Amino acid sequence: MFRYIVRRFAYMLVTLFVVSIISFVIIQLPPGDFVTSYVAQLAAMGELVDQSEVDALRARYGLGQPVYVQYAKWIGGVLEGDLGRSLQWNKPVRVLIADRLPWSFSISLVSVVFVWLIGLPIGVYSATNQYSVPDYIATFLGFVGLAVPNFLLALLALWYYFNATGQVIVGLFSPEYLMAPWSFGRVIDLLKHLWIPALITGTAGTAGLIRTIRANLLDEIRKPYTLTARAKGLTETRLLFKYPFRVAMIPSVSTIGWMLPGLFAGELLTSFVLGIPTLSPIFLGALLNQDMFLAGSIVLILSALTVIGTLISDLLLALVDPRIKESV
Amino acid sequence: MEERVTQAVNDLETAPGEEVAAETIFVASQWKLIWWRFRKHKLALISSGVLIVLYVIVAFAEFFAPYDATRSDKNYIYAPPQPLRFVDEEGGFGLRPFTYGYTGTLNMETLRVDYEIDYSTKYPIRFFTHGDPYKLWGLFETDLHLFGTDEGGSAFFLGTDKQGRDMVSRLIFGGRISLSVGLLGIAISFVLGILLGGISGYYGGTVDVIVQRIIEFLMSVPTLPLWMGFSAALPPTWSVTKTYFAIVVILSLLGWTGLARVVRSKFMSLREEDFVMAARLLGANELRIVFRHLVPSFTSHLIASLSLSIPGMILGETSLSFIGLGLQPPAISWGVLLKEAQAIRVLNEAPWLLYPGFAVVVAVLAFNFLGDGLRDAADPYSR
Q1: Which residues, 6 or more positions from A26, have their beta carbon under 8 angstroms from its beta carbon?
Q2: Domain spans, chain B
Q3: Do residue B226 and residue A295 have CB atoms under 8 angstroms apart?
Q4: A18 touches chain B (CB under 8 A)
Q5: Which of A75, A244, A251, B144 has the most Cβ atoms closer than 10 angstroms to its Cβ?
Q6: What is the pLDDT along chain A (328 residues), one digit of tens a residue?
Q7: Which of B219, B223, B319 minimises the CB distance to A151?
Q8: Do B186 and B83 contact (CB within 8 A), yes or no?
Q9: B233·A269 Cβ contact <8 A
Q10: Is A295 touching B (CB cutoff 8 A)?
Q11: How far apart are the first and last CA of chain B?
């Protein structure tokens, strides 16, 4: 077990290193460098540019030096918690991300709950009542759920919301709670808003879960041990949950970490359409305005969170199912 | 044995009265067996029909679209869809369909144009009529359209956009880009997947470990933020064609992993087979073994997994263009069209701008069903 953990941990470090290189490439992609744009922006606002400050910034990010030096300086800063400065907001990137990351995270987390809350019972019902009308409906909805892009669903939800409330964005709070201090009413109000993006973000995941659970459970139900158990006179419910259900769950549980990339992507599009102040709107704004430290840092954070999340889910699984660690 | 053959015959039997003799099955080629299995999957069969129709329409977009995609009509800005009618206001029925024109009045309160049906104008629909001139594929100059109205009439079956451009025509022209992104992207992914998956599966060892790590890495990072990051770096000065190809490359650079996995696992299981050993003993070289013996035995699996990865490409392009990081106007794709429905007030006034969304859903659904059917049919010898 210990060796398995060490090996997985080493893989994760390599992956994180590659992720950081890709993020750095994204930061470097637009023509021109950060300090030149910063100076141009200050000059455009009519502010005096202090040459010594410019030189300090150039030295800080190693501009004019070889790329690997620039990378080393940048990643060194990142490890110390300095993600650079956002040109567009004129704030440290760290502050911007710290403000919004919790919301991105909460929405993704709530949508995992939704995926399982909705997908599991439907998948089990579909499998135990194969070729019934609800099964056909569930299968069809599963296909549609995979085919409808998140942003389209979000747009439809927003349209409905607009007609119901007259608000142009869903947001996280109603206007009267927006600036209010935390209270019981504010939490309730938050929950009233949070389920909409969470549900939409989870559609593709739910559709996928229904399909895998149905397929796996059907496979297990047809196996002889189920027949044996039935012949011994077990009640149907007990029979189902005691054996086939548990075996059928393994593939879905073991890939729970793989849901993360899809969830983050879904959350980006959904929150963008619904106007929810997560990382999504500032990420898009940063990309459109070539505010590359902000954009690159968000890519880095989202990817790193995904990688770490996958690792945690794998480790938990190895703890639960000892067969796993031998196969990896 | 006898029983199994009868079983197989029963499995393959489809159309009533069409008896397939056991003899026929024994001599049928693999592709024939695949086709027999595939046509049992009704949804997949219908989907392939839908896809063929879609691709024919977008290939001959200029002919099927009643108008040029950029032609605007200032009297019909955000005009609602004009239904196709057979029965006129007086209850008279005619075989030739027609539409009624609109009269627009500016509503001073909402500052928008309110449209009312003008029953005095009746525009009959003509087939194979002459309309906006175009040059099909840059070769044939003509002005023939499948349908249209006489000069001065209007037939906007799905309404118009903010510049009074016909949504039907824009939908068709948009499909040309959105649907071809999938095919072109898959072509690049195909080369990458077969190359890397093949090398990884055929040689194994260190190469395999490295390729496997790359695949695992690409599968564990969220693709959308990376797509967004790379496409944001495309210079805005690039031409539409250049941006289009760049987007396709970006989409396929992260999209080949699934395919590589299929190729690798097939290579791994097949290279130990007796027929490979036989070929090797006969002195066939590596390339011949790979392309003459290995690849043909899993081509059907490849096609199935190819068609299952097209939807991801189509959705990727649509999402990127929708958030403004993909193709930009004047390019027309379904994502670009949907971007215009982004502002909720506009959407509320002109809900017909959402029709491109349904086109996306139909295309993606069709590819998913087709891929499912192909995957089931890919191995016709399995039960």
Answers
A1: A292, A295, A296, A299, B226, B229, B230, B233
A2: 1-30, 82-155, 170-378
A3: no
A4: yes
A5: A244
A6: 778 888 888 888 888 888 888 888 888 877 666 677 777 777 776 666 677 777 777 777 777 777 788 888 888 888 887 777 777 777 888 888 888 888 888 888 888 888 889 988 999 998 888 888 888 888 888 888 888 888 888 888 888 888 888 777 777 777 777 777 777 888 888 888 888 888 888 888 888 888 888 888 888 888 888 888 888 888 888 888 888 888 888 777 767 777 777 788 888 888 888 888 888 888 888 888 777 788 888 888 888 888 888 788 777 777 766 665 555 4
A7: B319
A8: no
A9: no
A10: yes
A11: 14
Chain A CB contacts of B213 below 8 Å: 11, 14
For residue B21, the one-letter residue type is: A
Please state the pTM of the whole predicted model: 0.81
Q: Is B152 exposed, middle or buried (0-12, 13-18, 19+ CB in 10 A)?
A: exposed
By the 8 A CB rule, do A216 and A251 touch?
Answer: yes
Q: What is the CA radius of gyration of chain A?
A: 25
A window 245-274, beta carbon within 8 A of B: 258, 260-262, 264-265, 268-269, 272-273
Give the strands of the sheet with B85-87, arranged side by side.
Answer: B85-87, B93-107, B112-136, B140-149
Residue B221 CA to residue A299 CA, distance in Å, equals: 9
Q: Cα–chain-centroid distance for residue B144?
A: 25
As to burial, measured by CB atoms within 10 angstroms (0-12 exposed, 13-18 middle, 19+ buried), residue B42 is exposed
User: Considering CB atoms only, which of B222, B324, B347 is closest to A288?
Assistant: B324
One-letter amino acid at A319 equals L
E strand map for chain B? 85-87, 93-107, 112-136, 140-149
Q: Which CATH number fits domain A102-290+301-323: 3.30.360.20, 1.10.630.10, 3.40.50.300, 1.10.3720.10?
A: 1.10.3720.10
Q: With an 8 Å Cβ cutoff, are A268 and B225 in contact?
A: yes
Preferred mutation among B238, B253, B319, B340 to probe A, highest tally of A CBs within 10 A:
B319
Please state the length of chain A: 328
Fold classification of B170-378 (topology level): MetI-like fold (1.10.3720)
Chain A residues near residue B221 by CB distance under 8 angstroms: 19, 22, 261, 303, 306-307
At B36, the amino acid letter reads W
Residues in chain A closer than 8 A to B229 (CB atoms): 26, 29, 287, 295-296, 299
Pairing outcome for strands B112-136 and B93-107: antiparallel
Place of tokens 């430290």: A293
**Closest CA–CA distance from residue B151 to any residue of chain A (Å):** 37
- Nearest Cα neighbor of A123 from A280, A292, A243, A248 is A248
> DSSP characters for B56-118?
HHHHTHHHHSSS-TT-B-TT-TTPPP---EEE-TTS-EEEEEEEEEEEEEEETTTTEEEEEEE
* Contact residues on chain A for B361, CB-CB shorter than 8 A: 144, 147-149, 152
Nearest CA in chain B to A20: B221
The answer to whether A286 and A111 are in contact (CB under 8 A) is no
- How crowded is the C-beta side of B72, counted as CA atoms within 13 Å? 8
* C-beta separation of B96 from B155 below 8 A: no
Whole-complex ipTM? 0.80
Cβ distance A306 to B338 less than 8 Å, yes or no, reads: no
Q: Which chain B residues are Cβ-neighbours of A159 within 8 angstroms?
A: 344, 347-348, 351
